[in-house]
Amino acid sequence: MQKIILTFSFFCFLLISLHAQDQRFMGGVIVGLNAAQIDGDNAAGYRKAGLLVGLRGGAYLTEKTSITIDMLYSQRGSRRVPRIDEAFETYTISTPYIEVPLLFHYKDWRVEYEDGSFFYKVSAEAGLAVSYLLNPKVENIVYETEVDNFNKVDIAWTAGVSYYFNEKVGVSARYLRSITPLYNHNKHMKTLNSLFGYHFNFSVFYVL
């Protein structure tokens, strides 16, 4: 995992260096929040909040299209809070990931300045994300004994939209849903449900 992080960090540094010489390449930073839950754990609602922070690298393909690859620290999982008339305690599944989304972007709504420069205010984006599970924690739930059997690698599809305030700063809303299970009951304990994570994230980004 350390090799992946070092490789991506070098990749981002390279893109930023190239951007200084060639406007086709970009770099940036991302900060935001996740609202997450897990299908199969009997806890409804996007009640698990988490931090989202990282770096972005990418390249412009045409005036309206680009591809990006992010390197994010992404806190996901689920949380259930009982009603007053329920006997069980609050329980949580905390799943922090190193998340690497590869996205295709299509921009529209061109805004032009008097000097002839321009930017696009909105962007639709979609792609795949590969994530690596770091240190999961389970509290007050039957999966406590199965946490060592959680899958380390998560593959998900993702889609979202971005709004640019100017050519450098914008906000994004994105949905991510896992294709691979966090816990596969067919491989381990068949009396438990398989678990699939999904979440919304909301972020602010700055593009170099």
Kindly describe this structure:
This protein has 208 residues and is mainly beta. It has one helix at 2-21; strands at 25-39, 48-60, 65-80, 91-112, 118-133, 137-139, 153-164, 169-178, 196-207. The protein has one domain (2-207): Beta Barrel (Porin). It is built from 1 helix and 9 strands, in the order αβββββββββ. Strand 2 and strand 3 (65-80) form a beta hairpin. The longest helix has 20 residues, at 2-21.
> How many E-type strands?
9
Secondary-structure element order, N to C:
HEEEEEEEEE
Please outline the major beta sheet: 8 strands, antiparallel, barrel
The CATH topology corresponds to Porin
Task: Round the mean pLDDT to the nearest integer and report it.
Answer: 87
**Name of the CATH architecture:** Beta Barrel
Q: Report the C-alpha radius of gyration, rounded.
A: 19 Å
Cα separation of the termini = 27 Å
Structural class: mainly beta
Low-confidence segments, given as residue ranges, are none
Helix content: under 10%
Sequence-ordered SSE layout with sheet pairings:
Elements: H1 2-21, E1 25-39, E2 48-60, E3 65-80, E4 91-112, E5 118-133, E6 137-139, E7 153-164, E8 169-178, E9 196-207
Antiparallel strand pairs: 1-2, 1-9, 2-3, 3-4, 4-5, 4-6, 5-7, 7-8, 8-9
Characteristic terms for this protein:
mainly beta, 208 residues, elongated, Porin, 8-stranded antiparallel barrel, 1 helix, single chain
